[in-house]
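**Folding the chain**
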Amino acid sequence: MFIERKIMFSMYGKAVFDFAAIGGLLELKETVDRLGKDHVHTALTPKLEGGVDPDDVFSKVPYEKGFVFLVYLERITSLVTDGYDAASGTPEFGAFLKQHFEKNKFGTVTAGGFKASYEAAFPEASKKVDWETWLFAPGMPPVDVGEYYDDVLAKASAELAKKWHLCDVLGMGSSDRPAFASADDLAEFTAAQVDHFLLVLLEYRGGLHPLSLQVIAALEELYGLSSSKNSEISCKWLQLRLGAGDVTAFEPAAAAVRAAGRMKFLRPLYRSLKRSGPDGEAFARKTFAETRGMYHPIAEKMVAADLGA
């Protein structure tokens, strides 16, 4: 994930890197909240002793918590080498990663091996790192790296999500369209910003009352989100609809889980169907029974665990 976003950095600039990082941090928080901040599977280095199946540990944690850790290490390295450049990162850290990859290519890497390599390359910086907490403690990272990022691209979509959240905090809805809303709200948004708008809205509703059906209808009327061909947007929009108890989202959700086999889409949609009520759970089980043979065995196993099937 770190390398992928560094490529985005090189191609499109820091604002795009920061925008992706902010979204990733939200997804990490959702995962930690769902699993529980003390759950062992939220540790960056999972404990697999005692016959734990590695597949059961799979989540956003290694991707996003690992990304945050590398961003943090890059900053810590810059404190010692005085080589941090906001436009390109720390040259010394980039060179270290390349060397580490070259040294370990075609081999097995471990957290301990990475730590040893970093300590050898940056002994002074390594002393500033709480390795035990970063690598083995559950929950969110011990350092808030959000302050590292510029929200220039995320701000507009996040602010729009907040407005929709606040207009229906209790999930009771209203027969009137929100006064702030306009069909032009998303006109200047990129697909990534629309996706971020829905991601933030999902984050706001986590643990609270879902949006009302009236608000879901207003969102659809204004923005036509159901017509999106973008899988990221479609998946998040379906989660919001299912959370609101929109039974007309059942069939589109079934179509989505038949069309895609990635767990990042399958698991949220099946979980959302299950949470939508007895009818939604029955529909999820029926759909899964019809489609499970299409999925990769790991995806099939994880969805089955989510549904208790």
Summary: The chain has 16 helices and no strands. Residues 155-307 form a domain with the Serine Threonine Protein Phosphatase 5, Tetratricopeptide repeat fold (CATH 1.25.40.320). The radius of gyration is 21 Å.
